[in-house]
């Protein structure tokens, strides 16, 4: 079980919930990192007493250093700081709750150190899944997923000794705020509408990804990498209630699922306590009041991101890295009001047709594909 964590991305939604669980379980915090939110970082440092605090933004780091000069806490900045936080000797577990492909290098560095990875940064596995999983095998690092669907699958697979018994992984998907709308109806969606998620409270990037269903596309790829299965063995179904968090279908026809209230603290807690379970102060699911559970096929015409993701998964190489980076850029442009909702998949497809895929890529090839895909979207 985890004793001391480094938390990459402490001021985001997952980061804040991770600190709640940390407190509840009595874990120590060795390092905290954030982008620009100095106020919240200062409060977290004063409460959790890490040895290291990192702000990605240089000015924010200077400001934090001034504010906490009364404390014995080192303050670093930028990607180097993030890397230092990921590799601190004191931490046995690194929580990767940063958004986007910026999580890739620090995750790999923590794996090289043999740490437990509580993985909340899906982009790492999407862009460089094979490199990351190979490194984890080589270094004996355990990757425990924090993403609710992948945690559900991880939990459903406890006791499965032979992976060839798995017939299918079935990821559930809330369908987002625009379930049932047609492609044409989605054309004039504004960021304000897309930021209203029916069940989960999350950061802006993942909320938009949930609205386009790109989140589920990324999660299909994440699941393939984690469990080393071809895309044909990973499905997604729409489940509006977000009670069944995902399922595994075995070759004898048995399906094992994990159910619960939509609360990220459960997968976070399990990532720390695995292979054991700890008592939770939260209210558990009440089967008698949760209502009917429904399942639907996703609409691939209205939500082409899901189809694009499956295609990239099939293509392999740097295709997923190109898709992921183009999507990140397009989502940011949508949030700034510069692109329409349906332009997000259009820009992703533009980047995919503009750039050549490299097969069996190195880390450098992946980072280069990421940079080039961002360029294509920026130069639209
Ligand atoms: Mg998820």
State the fourth-level CATH superfamily of the largest domain.
NAD(P)-binding Rossmann-like Domain
Sketch the topology as an H/E string, one letter per element: EHEHEHEHEHEHEHEHHHHEEEHHHHH
Could you name the ranges where pLDDT drops below 50 across 5 or more consecutive residues?
none
β content, as a range? 5-15%
Work out the helix count.
16
Counting helices, strands and paired strands, the structural category is: alpha/beta
Cα shape? globular
What number is the mean pLDDT? 96
- How many domains? The number is 3
Rg from Cα? 20 Å
What CATH architecture of the largest domain do you see? 3-Layer(aba) Sandwich
Strand order of the largest sheet: 4-3-2-1-5-6-7
What is the CATH T-level topology of the largest domain?
Rossmann fold
Summarize the structure.
The chain is α/β, with parallel strands linked by helices and 380 residues long. The protein has helices spanning 13-25, 38-48, 58-67, 78-87, 104-112, 122-139, 148-156, 183-186, 191-194, 204-212, 214-227, 265-273, 304-315, 319-335, 343-354, 363-378; strands spanning 4-8, 28-34, 52-55, 74-77, 93-96, 116-119, 143-145, 166-173, 234-238, 244-250, 255-259. The chain is 47% helix and 15% strand.
